[in-house]
Design brief:
The chain is mainly alpha-helical and 116 residues long. The chain contains six helices and two strands; from the N terminus they run αααβααβα. Helix 4 crosses helix 5 and helix 5 packs across helix 6. The longest helix has 27 residues.
Length: 116
């Protein structure tokens, strides 16, 4: 039995039962992530949208080139999660690639939330 190699107790469950529990746990995490993404995207983005319009930019697209946009996203995410500001900023950094192209807000927020 595998448990003797890893010095763990299977608590009378089969390996298949543990794999099912793990899969269900991951699905729960994915569902939680989607709920958080939905909450962030449905938060109040009016100030963000207005500033983007005033700057003659499309508010449907997010850019890490502007610190105010990153700060807005950080503060919006912080309202919906207990993650630290540093964790959120790292997730944003890992979600941004070097193409320097603006990203559709929905796609970018979903990517960031998946990294938290």
């Amino acid at each position: 039995m595998i448990s003797k190699f890893f010095d763990i107790s299977l608590e009378n469950k089969s390996i298949d039962e543990y794999q099912i529990d793990y899969a269900l746990s991951n699905e729960g995490d994915k569902l939680n992530n989607k709920k958080l993404t939905y909450a962030v995207l449905n938060d109040d983005w009016e100030a963000y949208n207005n500033r983007k319009i005033n700057d003659k930019h499309d508010f449907h697209f997010f850019s890490c080139d502007h610190l105010w946009e990153v700060n807005y996203l950080v503060n919006t995410i912080k309202k919906h999660t207990e993650k630290s500001e540093q964790e959120i900023r790292l997730a944003i950094a890992f979600s941004w690639d070097d193409t320097e192209e603006n990203k559709p807000r929905e796609i970018f927020v979903d990517c960031v939330m998946s990294k938290l």
